[in-house]
Every structure is written in C-alpha cells, then in structure tokens.
Write a structure and sequence with these properties.
Blueprint: H1 22-53, E1 65-67, H2 69-74, E2 80-82, H3 83-111
Antiparallel strand pairs: 1-2
C-alpha cells in the first residue's frame, strides 16, 4: 500500500492548434506595414496643404528637417524629412490604431462568442420592489 500523497496525477495539457485565420494576417499586415506608410503620406500631404492654405502655423522647433540621402535614392521627395511630418505621422498612426481597435471591439461584441458558456448558469434577474 502506498502513501496517500506519493503519486501525483498531472493534468494533461491539450495541444492547441494555432491556425490563424487568413483575415487576421491581412489585418496585421495593414496595421504593421501599411498604416505607417499611409500615415506618413497623409502627414506629408497635410503639411504641404497647410503651406498653401495656412490652416495653422507649426512651431518653430518642428520646422527643421534632416537629410536622408539613402532614402532619396528610392524616392527623391524624401531627401528632406521634416520634424513636423514625423510628429503628424505619429499622431495619424495612433489615430489609425484607435480606429482599428474600435472597429475590432464592435465586431467582437457582435460576432464573438457568447458571454456565457454551456456550464454557466443564466444571470440572476432581480425583481423590482
């Protein structure tokens, strides 16, 4: 006869298939690669339109630029990258990620699994007195 605690039974961990649906790969591609490119392009367009329309005056500290001769080989318009372009790019990226998050959370609330599983009891309904 063996002692009570000499044998342990370890719970078997079920192996999970991590097959990712292709749509999530596409959304990840958009968020990681295309969103920064679109944001930078939008920032450049907004700054150039601002120079013509004079919507706002950028601060003097952000009106500087730095030279990028490596990027100029591929795209001549990127020879000078302005600081204001980078600030607006960051703001557009944050805005874009926020929009994706709101859309995703709405889709999850509408199309996701039920809040209650098969072993959950239904919520308690309180009566008004």
């Amino acid at each position: 006869m063996s002692p009570k605690y000499s044998e342990y039974q370890y719970r078997q961990v079920k192996e999970r298939r991590w097959d990712v649906h292709p749509i999530w790969r596409g959304i990840g591609f958009i968020m990681l690669l295309l969103l920064p490119l679109i944001s930078f392009s939008a920032a450049v367009l907004v700054i150039r339109a601002n120079q013509e329309q004079k919507w706002f005056s950028p601060p003097e500290d952000l009106s500087g630029y730095f030279e990028t001769p490596q990027l100029a080989r591929f795209a001549p318009e990127l020879e000078r990258v302005y600081y204001m372009d980078l600030v607006l790019t960051f703001l557009f990226i944050v805005l874009g990620f926020g929009i994706f998050t709101v859309i995703y959370s709405f889709m999850w609330s509408q199309l996701g699994p039920s809040r209650y599983g098969p072993v959950d009891s239904p919520p308690i309904k309180k009566s008004r007195r």
